[in-house]
Amino acid sequence: MPRPFARALALAAVAAVIPLASPGTAAADSVVIGGFPVQASAVPWTVAVASRDRFGGTRGGQFCGGVVIGRSTVLTAAHCMGEEALGGPVRELSDLAIIQGRSDLLASDGREIRVRDVTVNPDYSSRTNAGDFAVLTLASALPQGAVIPMAPMGDAAYRPGTSATVYGWGDTTGAGDYARALRGARVEVLPDATCQRAYPGSADGTYVPASMLCAGATGGGRDACQGDSGGPLVASGRLIGLVSWGSGCGQAASPGVYTRVSDVVRKLRPSR
Asked: Are residues 169 and 259 in the same domain?
């Protein structure tokens, strides 16, 4: 099995430390993989996480995705905020920001809002990839209409067979062809047993049903990929997953693995 990888953007500056899938691991006709163009105005809760100082201006500094869960609160992947992805501590990223309401990363519409604070899930495990989420607190608030509800435990949106859509600006082929404009891909929530067979456990990661879910398409060809990490997986108008990790892109036997949002809801809920 190809080495599973965290789906943060692998630019030249960090290619040495972020494992890449080889071009041969992606579906040959994959064009997010197997996706379609999306207008940011239709999915206002989908944001790009960016730092021009660290990643340059070619793609507006975008290196991961995120999703708005509160007017001043964005979720992304914990591994996006790690030194391996950033090349140094997140506290040294003076221009960390989110880009909201902008389909084309090189356009000037939408908003760019500075990230005031970063809180990485203290239970995140880089060994299993469990608990892969971080909370970004924004310096100014977004409109309420940009917020998407999170699906709690027991929500029907998590049922296997449910149709879902993943959004992002990531690799569209698995060979380093990053999208400049937002795309989406339709996938299906898969049974935990399918995911456990695909990722039974190794030094690279383990499928943990309590904190993960996986989704894909029969026969492969539709999936998230590098650069999509932290982006939303949405079903029935509710957030159910964050792009986390996987093996290759768009492979039938290796579905994409997502942080299970019901676990995030449980961990963010104030104790009583």
From this structure: yes
Residue 16 lies in a domain: no
Catalytic residues: 79, 132, 229
Rounded to two decimals, what is the model's pTM?
Answer: 0.87
Per the CB < 8 A criterion, the answer to whether 189 and 174 are in contact is no
Same domain membership, residue 59 and residue 30 = no
Counting as low any pLDDT under 70, the low residues of the chain are 1-33, 173-176, 204, 270-272
* pLDDT, tens only, 81-117: 999 899 899 999 999 999 999 999 999 999 999 999 9
Q: Is 160 exposed, middle or buried (0-12, 13-18, 19+ CB in 10 A)?
A: middle
The answer to whether the CB of 258 falls within 8 A of the CB of 129 is: no
